[in-house]
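Case study B.
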Amino acid sequence: MALRAIAGKKTLALGLVFSPCAAAGASAPGMGLGLRQARGLVTFSLPDLPYDYGALEPAISGEIMKLHHQKHHQTYITNYNKALEQLEEAMAKGDSSKVVHLQSAIKFNGGGHINHSIFWQNLKPVNEGGGEPPHSTLGWAIDTDFGSLEALVQKMNAEGAALQGSGWVWLALDKELKKLKVETTANQDPLVTKGANLVPLLGIDVWEHAYYLQYKNVRPDYLKNIWKVMNWKYAGEVYDKEIA
Amino acid sequence: MGFPLLSPSYCCGSQPSPPIFHGLLRFKPVTSLRKPSSQKRQLCQSGRASKILAYYGLTTPPYELDALEPYMSQRTLELHWGKHHRDYVDSLNKQLAKNPLYGHTMEELIKVTYNNGNPLPEFNNAAQVWNHDFFWESMQPGGGKLPQGGLLQQIEKDFDSFSNFRDKFVESAMTLFGSGWVWLVLRTEEKRLSVVRTSNAMCPLIWGDIPIIGLDMWEHAYYLDYKEENVRAIC
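Model:
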């Protein structure tokens, strides 16, 4: 699954530690989604950004990055944890209607957590390689499946701009067909809701909160500029791992 | 119809005219046509160069853009009305220039383009134009007072109390996932008031209910003033 691929420098590993205060330290690398365990229930915490809030300027303002990370992403995590706790209770009681009722909150908040965790990895300051085009394997795959990098960027920008309401636009790898494709998802639906074989390589958040303070209603400008801080290296690593 | 006549004066306010009748259609024939007898007319397909025969106009909120301060800033109104709402109108007119969907009132256009669940590309723009027209009417400067007369009675009847209704409305707005709207509607079938939520551009007119107030919960509606604290925005 895509979750395995999230392995940034400062991300938190899956620590099977039962102390509630453990911020999931060393142990096994892998999940990187900030897991803690207490009372047997896995809870999630906000992963650190691998760069400063202002490091993506001028493409994305520090104000947006701070709000986006500390407020929006944190809220998804808080509500995800809450929903999981309620789910555990409902399952223990055998309360099926509550279990089913909780699914939309889990999909929304859990999806928000998954998507944003990927998003922070997808971005990189310019002086750390952000914006540098993809090389070798992923670069060739893009040329094969889209004609050129420019064509891919144009397609993603067009689909991102056309998305009604809130959602995400993705560069996805279909790991069965070994082909790249552009997909969109609504609200916080993770990419996997569009196909079980789809692995997210890059995702762009087109919820208004992702750009409004800086770009106002001009979503196309946000989409044009975000490529300047795109972390193709990360996308390439995920791609190579899946294709291998 | 068996239910009390609703007075549309409510805390978030509306004009003296019933909220549903926001006839916001402005026709501007640019070729010589005979005067229409009713709003529902077919415009002639003129063979001349200028093919655009009608357009929808951007209606102005019934107050100055700073009149809703401090709850909603002038800056927000400038952007929300001046850019978002205007964009929907301009985009709709552009689409209609290529598409023979002439002669409808906005309410009709929404239903036609909704196309029974298979929306045409014009639907999103048409519905958002209407929704935003209604939204400006749903608010008024110095609002915040209780509704009066028939509407208050109906609210108390259908929600037990005004504060119950308010709680329900706020809760509905808070638990909306993604972009959408929260409405107080009059359900025409059941003949009672209800709080409903719609996604993206969806509008209760589609299924025949009568909106009484609408609240825009798209992030652009509150982000400049309240950032992510949409609770404060709603209250």
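Chain B is about 35% helix and 10% strand. The remaining cases will be described in the next quarterly update.
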